[in-house]
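Case study.
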Amino acid sequence: DQQVKQNSPSLSVQEGRISILNCDYTNSMFDYFLWYKKYPAEGPTFLISISSIKDKNEDGRFTVFLNKSAKHLSLHIVPSQPGDSAVYFCAASASSGGSNYKLTFGKGTLLTVNP
Amino acid sequence: GAVVSQHPSWVICKSGTSVKIECRSLDFQATTMFWYRQFPKQSLMLMATSNEGSKATYEQGVEKDKFLINHASLTLSTLTVTSAHPEDSSFYICSTRDRGTDTQYFGPGTRLTVL
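After joint prediction, the assembly is written out as follows.
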């Protein structure tokens, strides 16, 4: 049972345009959500996070939106740059229920930004 | 974000040997570290949660006698793959949790190849 789903395995956008990466989750105990960027053979790099008490968090070109009722979050990158090309992972954690803050990851979306 | 190092970055070994991977939190004391494994084109899968001064908590399906975890200090956790076999070949990544934000920061990963 996949609790965090990234249904688009890949996304291609033009440089300067907006990239929108989507993520859905099923576990209502999740209350903290994160986006990571990953290059091959490297560890994930933290990009941005959002707590369930918020519906939006912005950091420079990156904005994460959370829709709790739909159990959906998205990452917006604007403007997109060729250096943004990587695999983006959505992750979620629950602060209660003995989960010990472990992260559950989606399968990732490969973003390609074309010059 | 936090700086996490891993050593070695890659290792090739013969079947039946044991391999130790180190994970160090360089800029803060980490009472909790996590060990993940990633197979090609798949998501990161949590293997175990490493707690300083106590036994690690393993995820379902992960053999604790095969993947030995030691978290002897607040800045170092080690993962030992005992009697490694070719099916253990994977990318192993550790992370530390920033208790202030609940964000996990990842090391660069270790590529293990068992011949």
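Observations recorded in class. The CA atoms of residues 52 and 68 of chain A lie 7 Å apart. Chain A touches chain B at residues 32, 34, 36, 41-46, 49, 89, 91, 93, 95, 100-108 (CB under 8 Å). We will return to this complex in the next lecture.
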